[in-house]
Fold:
Amino acid sequence: MGGINKDIKLIDENGKRIDGRSFNELRPIKIEAGVLERADGSAYIEWGNNKIIAAVYGPREVYPKHMQDPSRAVLRARYNMAAFSVDERKKPGPDRRSIELSLVISNALSSVVLLEQFPRTAIDVFIEVLQADAGTRIAGLTAASVALADAGIPMKDLIVGCAAGKVDNTVVLDLNKEEDNYGQADLPVAIIPRTKEIVLFQMDGDMTFDEVEMGLNMAIDAALKVYELQKDALRRKYINLAQEDEQQ
Ligand code: ADP
Structure:
């Protein structure tokens, strides 16, 4: 968050944002399930200019062994941004940001996966950001939950989200990179769609209470639209599999 910058206008006199969207419009989103052969489950998401792959392995044996939990599976999500995913080459390997994002994503996913069914095992979720353009934690989480479903891991529901934020003193939905860099606030939100429970909620920047409430409501409404795309991706995967079976 750069804070308000008088030199860079992010919303024009007609209320249009720099990429032509209105204040409550999502970027275009495409989701595909089952994109990797080797993984137990996988998904690919394009969300605006973000391109992200999620791969799931497990439930499987836990290494190192002392990380086992005798009462439930441990779900370990690892968020990683490829060195080529941003304009300036990013230093490879985990940094403070990716460690934090891995933790909040692990916690969010753990709230829906039925971990008690798989004691002493690990469920590993890899999120690889190939191209980053703001909103990657939510896009990654959205793909990861499709990948978990694709792996056949029992869950209460999928998890889905969207970010809202504030640019040019206006509450807007789904910030892109310029809006994230030069805007005033970013508010990523993820929910369990069926119950509308909030499983991830963070804020970077400054917003009033009323603005947060408005942003939160916009993010939840948008997340429910993305939920339909997640279910479509899973349906498409199983229709394709059924057609392949018929042809054999
Ligand atoms: P999110 O991607 O969830 O919005 P941030 O708000 O931390 O997370 O990051 C916003 C955007 O800033 C990222 O999507 C990415 O485009 C860019 N970014 C983040 N970290 C780096 C980095 N180390 N180098 C270059 N750009 C980065």
About this structure: Residues 86, 88, 90, 97, 132-137, 177, 180, 186, 188 surround adenosine-5'-diphosphate (CB under 6 Å).
